[in-house]
Structure prediction request, 119 residues.
Amino acid sequence: MTSWRILVVDDEPLVLHMLRDVLTSLPADVLEAKEGEEAIRLAKAERPDLIHLDVMMPRMDGFQVAEALKQDPTTATIPIIFISALGSSRDKVRGLDLGAEDYLVKPIDPEELKVRVRM
Prediction:
């Protein structure tokens, strides 16, 4: 099986660690970013197969990151899955309207996460 390249963006080190552990079992090569501007730079340089994106981050939130990625032709087609503690319908709709493929609410079940990635 070919390994996916997945960019995980979250400002919480424990969340990054948990997601890396789950995703490497798929198998996947995991790239990590702790803030929005770093995520945009990595997405442009590395062209991952998928981006897992937190919403609540300092300076540039996940919605702003998604909007920037979808407006740039070099990153516009990279699928995004939001993973956030924000679980209101309004937040989910906003994320999906920005072009995300999915929106998951923390805490995430590891098996559900793997299924969503495969889809």
In short: DSSP finds five helices and five strands in the chain. The first helix runs from residue 13 to 24. The two ends are 15 Å apart (CA to CA). Strands lie at 4-9, 28-33, 50-53, 80-84, 102-105.
